[in-house]
Amino acid sequence: MAATRTDVLSQVLTLIRLRGELVYSANLRGPWSIAFPKGAAHFHFVERGALWVKTLGAEPVRAEAGDMVLLPHGTGHLICDDPATPAVDIAAIIGPHFDRSRSVLDYGGDGAATRVVGGLFHFEGGSLAAVMAALPVVVHIASENGKTPDWLDAIAHFLVKESHEVEPGSSLMISRLIDLLVIRTLRTWAANQSRPGSWLGGLGEERIGRALSAIHADPYRQWSVAELAGIAAMSRSIFAERFTARVGEAPLHYVKRWKLTLAADMLASGSLRVTQAAQRIGYASDAAFSRAFKTQFGYAPSEVRQRQDGPPRD
After folding, report:
1. H or E element, residue 119
2. What integer is the mean pLDDT of 103-111?
3. Which candidate, 131, 135, 127, 133, places its Cα nearest to that of 299?
4. Which of 114, 171, 227, 287 has its CA 20 to 30 A from that of 177?
5. Cβ atoms < 10 Å from Cβ of 93
């Protein structure tokens, strides 16, 4: 199952592309509470001290030194020393408390100190539905018995260095490092998940995981329920029922959605035109492909490239 999980995760995480916008260090002293608006995705790595993360759709999360918190959906949220501390909007704090030359935020009272490395970014493209649907509002990676994981410590170190010492190419380096940080965070989180209702839930069950692995190994094949049930060594009816319960949709719906996800990625990269993408994933006509694509993503395949060039939709 470890190999199956790795193969499918690799397929899915390959599609993640993001644009890093800002990395900063924050020296915070209690009492403090900072509200971030809806829009960009965020991460907060707690270097020292502790904080709370509050957002709609999730219980408050306490993060301590060495913990990583990722908010991938771009929902509004706040970080604070105490859930009872009144929040101040980040827009009101930046002017008097943010050193733009060094990307350092210094804010709060004279209480307990917390040091955070934070950042914001946008996911690019419209091909992330299969990934994002499996993610909670808050992804929390706890430290390993109080010790920061080596990978997180190393990436955070270089992020801070690039943000403090701005040199030619720093913006690109920061974007690439955020990319690496987010993918590594998602991989760490996903390795311990088996939640029903997503492809991650399917990976947690051996026979369903074999079927998912087969789909991802040969995504352009015209799969049938009977073929996938055979791979899972189950009857068609039991397989269909169990797959739907674990993954959150029927087998062939998942196959169709994954093909459209791959088509969106190909169109975003510019490697194929609409007609070619439609043929690649098995559609006989552009019209049928366009209808299915728009139903899945909410916009036409011909709009993919222009959406790549503009700001993502909330």
Report:
1. strand 113-123
2. 95
3. 127
4. 114
5. 18
Confidence of residue 240 (pLDDT cuts 50, 70, 90): very high
3-state secondary structure of 113: strand
pTM of the model: 0.74
Mention every residue, 6+ apart, whose C-beta is less than 8 A from residue 205: 194, 242, 246
* 221 CB-near residues (< 8 Å, 6+ apart): none
User: What would the pLDDT profile of 259-279 be if each residue is shown by its tens digit?
Assistant: 998 898 888 878 789 999 999
Q: Which two tokens stand for residue 275?
A: 């007609």
Locate tokens 């959406």: which residue? 307
CA–CA distance, 300 with 120 (Å, rounded to integer): 28
Give burial (CB, 10 Å; 0-12/13-18/19+) of 179: middle
> Are the C-beta atoms of residues 208 and 246 closer than 8 Å to each other?
yes
pLDDT score of 309 more than 90: no
Cα angle value 199/14/241 (rounded, 5°): 15
Radius of gyration of the chain measured on its C-alpha atoms: 21
Q: How many residues does the chain have?
A: 314
| Measured CA distances, 185 to 58, 173, 188, 190 (Å) | 19, 18, 5, 9
Going 18 to 158 to 7 to 204, the CA torsion angle's sign is: negative
